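F.,

This is the one I mentioned.
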């Protein structure tokens, strides 16, 4: 399936069954588009657009509200972008019909109320340049290299200054100026599939479409906030530095213990990310008492994670320790762990 890139953005996380497909979601935020099922038709692509925007809105809200907690800050203008060569060559004609693609990069959608929206950027605008720099040229069908190069171009711009974009639509070009919108450097990406997978790798947060099918937005935000927490806490790099296995031995002994520690840390931080972004933080407790418990698998849950019941208890305890006068955004004590080695 193809989906966009949120400018917010897209990356892969700390558990890490990850497969990239030809079409990807990323939201400028950036948000990037994700791969779509083949063969693609107009209805499939429009449904994908809806899903990308839904994930994009959640990612945008979390990334911008929690910018003070992140060590890497980038422009997050609030648009979902994708590249023509995220689509297989056999699907590109349909993609051009649906999305425009007067250049290699097009806007799949715009987050309502975002700086991109206020600047007048609209779905199916194609992007010509960013701050005077030409957008990447398509390199081939079925890959995300061009999309990733576009994300890198946005990331390289100053987060505290406006973005000057030249857009093209129906052969007419116009210039827009997008107000600064700093946010956490993470690309949010939709992965189409039936497995309940969510991963983060320090750069990307990838969420399976199965979560969107089964969860309302507040519960979906719990999942996205947890994965973003892995990136904010540098878990991917810290696990690598500690030599922790992610293979067949990941559940055993020291490997399992350290994995559980990172998952618990992400649960603790995730509840604060939700609160900072305006969601009821108790939603995380309710998630692990309800849909999260059903996903958990009971006695079959992975030893890399605490049980659903223990996760609910941990999050409740984290909220109970929250100072009554805690500001928004709040920087919780768990943030100090992000520079500590895992052992």
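My design for it:
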């Amino acid at each position: 399936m193809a989906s966009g890139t949120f400018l917010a953005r897209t990356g892969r996380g700390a558990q890490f069954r990850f497969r990239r497909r030809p079409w990807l979601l990323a939201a400028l935020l950036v948000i990037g588009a994700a791969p779509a099922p083949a063969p693609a038709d107009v209805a499939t692509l429009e449904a994908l657009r809806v899903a990308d925007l839904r994930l994009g809105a959640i990612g945008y809200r979390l990334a911008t509200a929690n910018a003070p907690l992140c060590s890497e800050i980038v422009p997050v203008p609030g648009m979902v972008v994708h590249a023509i060569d995220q689509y297989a060559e056999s699907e590109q004609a349909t993609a051009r019909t649906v999305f425009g693609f007067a250049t290699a990069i097009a806007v799949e959608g715009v987050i309502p109320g975002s700086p991109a929206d206020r600047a007048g950027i609209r779905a199916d605008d194609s992007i010509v340049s960013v701050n005077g720099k030409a957008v990447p040229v398509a390199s081939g069908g079925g890959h995300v290299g061009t999309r990733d190069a576009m994300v890198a171009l946005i990331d390289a711009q100053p987060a505290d200054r406006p973005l000057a974009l030249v857009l093209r639509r129906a052969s007419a070009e116009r210039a827009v100026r997008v107000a600064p919108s700093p946010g956490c450097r993470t690309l949010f990406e939709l992965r189409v599939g039936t497995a309940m997978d969510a991963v983060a790798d320090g750069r990307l947060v990838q969420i399976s479409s199965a979560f969107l099918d089964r969860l309302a937005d507040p519960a979906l935000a719990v999942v996205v906030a947890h994965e973003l927490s892995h990136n904010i806490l540098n878990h991917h790099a810290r696990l690598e530095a500690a030599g922790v296995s992610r293979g067949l031995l990941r559940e055993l002994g020291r490997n399992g213990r350290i994995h559980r520690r990172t998952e618990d840390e992400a649960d603790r931080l995730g509840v604060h990310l939700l609160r900072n972004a305006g969601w009821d933080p108790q939603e995380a407790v309710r998630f692990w008492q309800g849909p999260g418990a059903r996903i958990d698998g009971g006695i079959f849950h992975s030893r890399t994670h605490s049980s659903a019941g223990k996760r609910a208890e941990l999050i409740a305890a984290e909220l109970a320790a929250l100072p009554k006068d805690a500001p928004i955004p709040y920087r919780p004590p768990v943030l100090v762990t992000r520079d500590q080695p895992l052992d």
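The longest strand covers residues 163-169.

Talk soon.
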